[in-house]
Design brief:
The chain has one domain: Immunoglobulin-like (Sandwich), CATH 2.60.40. Helices cover 0% and strands 47% of the residues. The chain has no helices and seven strands. Strand 3 and strand 4 form a beta hairpin.
């Protein structure tokens, strides 16, 4: 559960069945390494939370993004993965989450149940 003002982390794991290679195209006569973009944006605004340009230099890529939501309510993030070489390989997912009211601060308690 995410409370208003809390930090939370988004973890995206991408798996490929092969490492990045040179792409082939009849209309582009030069060697070009296939690359990808990952973009995480807030669906409720025009803000981009995260963008990275990457290649699959290993079969699994992990991206960790830390964010904070100030106000309670229902929100949605859009995660897009796009190839810079090929059409039709784009992946797009919406992730919905809810932010609850800010939690009341509780003073730390020691092992004997006394407030520090």
């Amino acid at each position: 559960m995410i409370g208003a003002g809390d930090f939370f982390q988004i973890v995206v794991n991408l798996k490929s069945n092969r490492l990045s290679n040179f792409c082939s195209s009849v209309t582009y006569p030069y060697l070009k390494m296939e690359s990808w973009h990952i973009i995480i944006s807030d669906s409720n605004s025009i803000g981009i939370l995260f963008h990275e340009f990457f290649t699959f230099d290993e079969l699994t890529k992990t991206f960790k993004v830390t964010s904070r939501q100030e106000k309670q309510g229902k929100y949605s993030l859009n995660i897009s993965v796009m190839s810079d070489c090929y059409f039709g390989l784009d992946i797009e997912r919406d992730v919905k989450y809810e932010v609850t009211p800010m939690k009341a601060h509780r003073p730390p308690v020691d092992d004997e149940g006394e407030v520090e």
